[in-house]
């Protein structure tokens, strides 16, 4: 099989299709999927990879539920997954994080998703798709790809640790309060997720060298352990993905602000400065 990069451009994929042993997963809105999708793609409802239960609605569901989802999609241990969505990478990045968590490391992100694909004038298919199921068993979740609230509390103040907050500036400062408390984790830096997307280029990720320099200036560097979060680990699916593409030691905080901001015991900072 052709070796595929983590960041896969639409034009490059179009030249390779159809591909054997490749599963293209579309997490767009279902109405949009029915209208147009990448040829051979299957649809996944993003809600099926969320626990949906307070205080951590953004956590993964049970091992059995994960097994059911990936079996229905037809995933096998040696399948290469290509993930995309219709919003610039949030849900696709979260899917890639879920694949990391179940130990499936063969994947790519279709840069810009369906928006970039259509903008490039590439062929699409329409209508519902039937999938031949597999028997994919998730037996455990892998360490090294996520951090809990307790683990972040242990790391606060350590020079080799940093939190990347992917929420809006108003949520970060505490001007917009979504949980019981507003503000941010002490020391966290804020770069709102959509700022990294090129709106004029089909929501592709912006120039990687410039993105890396910007993050370096914020302290988001390759020598640190980076935890990224938003409210429920949807928007931070994108920042997790970007971190992987840039070679950062990035981990998700799936509890996110729904977990942190609703706990009266966690430290919170308000305003536009990290501390």
Walk me through what this model shows.
By secondary structure, the chain is an alpha/beta fold. It has two domains: 7-119, Oxidized Rhodanese, domain 1, CATH 3.40.250; 149-260, Oxidized Rhodanese, domain 1. It contains ten helices and eleven strands. The chain has helices at residues 10-16, 30-35, 63-72, 90-102, 113-119, 149-155, 169-173, 208-218, 235-245, 256-260; strands at residues 7-8, 22-26, 42-43, 80-84, 107-110, 161-165, 189-190, 197-198, 204-205, 225-229, 249-252. The strands form three sheets. A five-stranded parallel β-sheet has the order 1-5-4-2-3. Strands 7-6-10-11 form a four-stranded parallel β-sheet. A two-stranded antiparallel ribbon has the order 8-9. Strand 4, helix 4 (90-102) and strand 5 form a beta-alpha-beta unit. Helix 4 (90-102) crosses helix 9. It is globular. The model has no long low-confidence stretch (mean pLDDT 97).
Task: Describe the structure in brief.
It contains ten helices and eleven strands. It has 275 residues and is an alpha/beta fold.
Helix content: 25-40%
Q: Which CATH class of the largest domain?
A: Alpha Beta
Output mean pLDDT: 97
Number of strands: 11
- CATH level 4 superfamily of the largest domain: Rhodanese-like domain
Largest sheet at a glance? 5 strands, parallel
Secondary-structure element pattern, one letter each: EHEHEHEHEHHEHEEEHEHEH
**CATH fold description of the largest domain:** Oxidized Rhodanese, domain 1
What structural class do the secondary elements suggest?
Answer: alpha/beta
CATH architecture of the largest domain: 3-Layer(aba) Sandwich
Oligomer: single chain
Cα distance, first to last residue?
49 Å
Strand order of the largest sheet: 1-5-4-2-3
Number of domains: 2
Radius of gyration: 18 Å
Strand residues, percent: 5-15%
* Form type: globular
**Uncertain residue ranges:** none
Q: How many alpha or pi helices?
A: 10
